[in-house]
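Z., the sequence and structure:
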Amino acid sequence: MRTKSVVPRLRAKKRLFKRVKGSVGGRRRLLRTAKESLIRSGVFARRDRRRKKRDFRRLWIIRINAAVRQRGIRYSQFIAGLDKLGVELDRRTLAEMAVVDSVGFDSVVESVRQVLGLPESTAVAV
């Protein structure tokens, strides 16, 4: 007697349709279209998980650059000074300091200024 894989197939279809819930039209109702859209969405999700890291790093660099330019230093000088000081603050923390804790960020900038031998605060008024 021939065996049929009805139950496992139905279970697999049910799992798949559960994952495409929220889609519109055939993407939600038709098996082949649902599979295709699920695969495609997975590819986009993987790509964007990696892209998110790049985008946030870019944002932090922009924020730090703006903050240090207000205090009269270029971003590259600031990072080089941090490297000479041996400060291990990452860009995320520095960007957060620039926005939230300006006094702490000022002290970091001043210490970088001293290490690089730059003149005292030639800050640009904004």
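Residues 52-116 form a domain with the c-terminal domain of poly(a) binding protein fold (CATH 1.10.1900.20). The CA atoms of residues 25 and 100 lie 46 Å apart.

Let me know what you think.
H.
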